[in-house]
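Justification of resources, computational component.

The compute hours requested in this renewal are based largely on the per-chain cost of generating structure records like the one below. Each record pairs the submitted sequence with a full structure-token output. That output is archived, and it is also reused by downstream analysis tasks.
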Amino acid sequence: QVQFVESGGGLVQPGGSLKLACVASGSRLDYYAVGWFRQAPGKEREGVSCISYSDGTTYYADSVKGRYAISRDNAKNTVYLQMNSLKPEDTGVYYCATPTHCSVYTDYVSQYHYGQGTQVTVSS
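The structure output for this chain reads:
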């Protein structure tokens, strides 16, 4: 089973940027779709973005479209999430996981295996 370590979170002012990294171990990521998920305080975990394994097709939640960019470096077994124009509502713990396919990455959020996550706080 793929294990993940997420990093790159922190405290940032509204309008700022962060780049998260998700490093995998236990298996090569080449043949996995990888998604980023977040959980805000008092809310359900939600899918934020996903990148397919086959052709690198990317998927984004409407709330982050145009502001976030997901990418992968298979040689480093790492997936990134570039977050720009951050808003206070982007605050939460960010996790990565491997959904069966990106087309359904938001459907089984509670069933995926997650790392420890990285905290993102957007506040002035």
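The mean pLDDT is 95. The radius of gyration is 13 Å.
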